[in-house]
Amino acid sequence: MKTAILVDGGFYRCQSYRLFGEKNPEDRADELFRYCKKHLSTKYANYDLYRIFYYDCPPLNKQVYNPITKKSVDLSKSELYLWMTEFLTKLKGKRKLALRLGRISDTKVIYTLPDDTVKKLLTRTISIDDITENDLKLNVRQKGVDMKIGVDIASMAFKRQVDQIVLIAGDSDFVPAAKLARREGIDFILDPMSNHVSDDLFEHIDGIHTHYKKFTNTTDQQSCDVSQRRTVGD
């Protein structure tokens, strides 16, 4: 039986950082590949890998005005840009791994304040003079990734290319695609990597399988700044 493994890239990078710690691009790419292959052997059956599909966006490389420093920031020279570019290059070299890249909307790319900082300003816990460059986050919008995931799920289901689909993701945006796959007789498995699963998504999957506890002995779990992963593609 054949299994396709679909990875929401922004979600995986966030969760892997939190669960497994910080890594260089090559090690993170190797880790992702090994983690996906854990899904091919379970207590119920052994599966052949059809393909791993990795969905993400290339990093942004434009100039953005920083209101604190009052200077433009060249994102193409940032550490995040360099890390992400090398990471995607390493993934391209993996056997049976296909990149499905969307894009980041280059309109209205601005620095904003996190919600908790805004609340502190409104309650006068802090003043505008207390705001520093570290308080800013880059506000970007991902385009095309969720659509590509849905289209691939539908295509594989209608063409009967696989017997099982494993989705590594953490939100309920994929409920319609999961429902379609199950109606076509596909075994649809979710790996939330310790993330909470909403009731509407849980209702439309065939099971939850995750391997993060067996995959590492790391006990020093780090926090993941969601705004950071959205900077590069979610």
Any overview of this molecule?
It is built from nine helices and twelve strands. 36% of the residues lie in helices and 22% in strands. 30% of the residues are buried. The protein has helices at residues 9-20, 25-37, 79-92, 115-122, 145-159, 175-183, 199-202, 212-215, 226-231; strands spanning 2-8, 48-56, 63-66, 71-74, 97-101, 103-104, 110-112, 137-139, 142-143, 164-168, 187-191, 207-208. A hairpin with a 4-residue loop joins β3 and β4 (71-74). It has one domain (2-63, 72-103, 140-231): Rossmann fold, CATH 3.40.50.1010. The two termini are 32 Å apart. The chain has a six-stranded parallel sheet, sandwiched between helices. A two-stranded antiparallel sheet has the order 3-4. Strands 6-9 form a two-stranded antiparallel sheet. The protein has 234 residues and is of the alpha/beta class.
What is the topology?
Elements: E1 2-8, H1 9-20, H2 25-37, E2 48-56, E3 63-66, E4 71-74, H3 79-92, E5 97-101, E6 103-104, E7 110-112, H4 115-122, E8 137-139, E9 142-143, H5 145-159, E10 164-168, H6 175-183, E11 187-191, H7 199-202, E12 207-208, H8 212-215, H9 226-231
Parallel strand pairs: 1-2, 1-10, 2-5, 10-11, 11-12
Antiparallel strand pairs: 3-4, 6-9, 7-8
Helix pairs in contact: 2-3, 5-6
Largest beta sheet: strand ordering: 5-2-1-10-11-12
CATH topology: Rossmann fold
Strand content: 15-25%
Given this structure, which CATH class is correct?
Alpha Beta
Main sheet attributes: strand count, strand direction, barrel closure: 6 strands, parallel
Number of strands: 12
Number of domains: 1
Q: How large is the radius of gyration?
A: 19 Å
Gross morphology is: elongated
Helix content: 25-40%
Q: Could you report the average pLDDT, rounded to the nearest whole number?
A: 85
The appropriate CATH architecture is 3-Layer(aba) Sandwich
- Tally the helices: what do you get? 9
